[in-house]
Amino acid sequence: MPDVTRLGQAGLEGWREKVGDRAAPPIAQRTALSEEQVRALIGALFFALSVIT
Questions:
Q1: Which of 12, 14, 17, 34 could bond to 43 as cystine, CB 3.0-4.6 Å?
Q2: pLDDT per residue as tens digits for the range 7-26
Q3: Which domain holds residue 19?
């Protein structure tokens, strides 16, 4: 069973991946999360937005 981080990062493809890659390091520095966890959260957010629309 894949872990939650890998599931969240699956939502990052194309331009969304570029956004996640650029946003993750500064957010990770300011929070207790790792870059992978931040990317997973961004991917989950994009996935949720696509489901809503």
A1: 12
A2: 777 778 889 989 999 999 99
A3: 4-52
- The CA distance from 53 to 38, in Å, is 23
Residue with tokens 């872990």: 3
What is d(CA 33, CA 49) in angstroms, rounded to the nearest whole number? 22
Single pTM value for the model: 0.81
CA angle 42/5/13 to nearest 5° reads 50
Cα–Cα nearest to 10, from 44, 38, 36: 44
Q: For the chain, how many structural domains are there in total?
A: 1
Q: Cα(31)–Cα(26) distance, rounded to whole angstroms?
A: 9
